[in-house]
Design goal:
alpha+beta
Length: about 210
């Protein structure tokens, strides 16, 4: 089963972060839209059976945001089904978020959602974000397999560094972060923490009607 190793970092100054990316020589992934809206729904049993076992079942709909490269064209959506579970023999446990991950593209999110409902699952948490994926040039051999994914969310801006642990550490350092800044929580837990800080009841993590 494919393995996913990642961390999050909170971005408090987006402009400064983007300057640091340019200094590193990163580019938006070739052939891909610069900014993508992601609408996510997490499914689970009524008693949270998947979450209790550290598992996640998610349907994600990705919609490119209109830009110069696709101006005037209807955005082509991509729908992805993801299943994650605790990884066996995690690399440096506690320092990185390590999961086994299976992903596959599907044709219709609504139809699959109905199937899940028929099987006794329910979509119990929805969250959205805008993601831009950056890559380092091929000349930076140390960064092979590293994804730098900038996420704009309703609770703030984050970057996910996904790839080999050594590449994650080096990229984080170049961006001005240390291991003390690493966040291993998922967006659900970060959202709940933010709602508690603001003294409001947690619900779905969604933008206002227009963003």
């Amino acid at each position: 089963m494919p393995n996913e190793t990642e961390i999050k970092l909170r971005i408090r100054d987006k402009k400064a972060f983007l300057r640091a990316l340019r200094k590193m020589g990163t580019k938006v992934r070739a052939g891909q839209p610069a900014r993508v809206h992601e609408a996510n729904t997490i499914f689970d049993t009524p008693d949270g059976g998947l979450a209790k076992h550290g598992q996640l079942l998610r349907i994600r709909t990705e919609t490119p945001v209109a830009g110069r490269q696709n101006k005037g064209k209807k955005p082509k959506q991509r729908v992805v089904l993801t299943f994650k579970s605790p990884a066996a023999g995690a690399v440096t446990p506690g320092k990185y978020k390590v999961r086994d991950e299976i992903e596959m593209e599907i044709a219709d999110a609504a139809t699959l959602g109905k199937i899940f409902l028929g099987l006794g699952l329910k979509g119990w948490f929805r969250y959205e974000k805008f993601r831009t994926t950056h890559l380092l040039p091929a000349s930076a051999r140390w960064a092979k397999g590293l994804l730098i994914e900038l996420d704009e969310t309703p609770i703030g801006t984050f970057v996910e560094l996904e790839g080999p642990p050594e590449a994650i550490d080096r990229a984080a350092a170049l961006l001005g972060f240390s291991r003390r800044d690493y966040i291993l929580a998922n967006y659900l837990m970060l959202h709940i923490a933010e709602c508690r800080r603001r003294g409001i009841e947690p619900g779905d993590m969604l933008f206002p009607a227009r963003h």
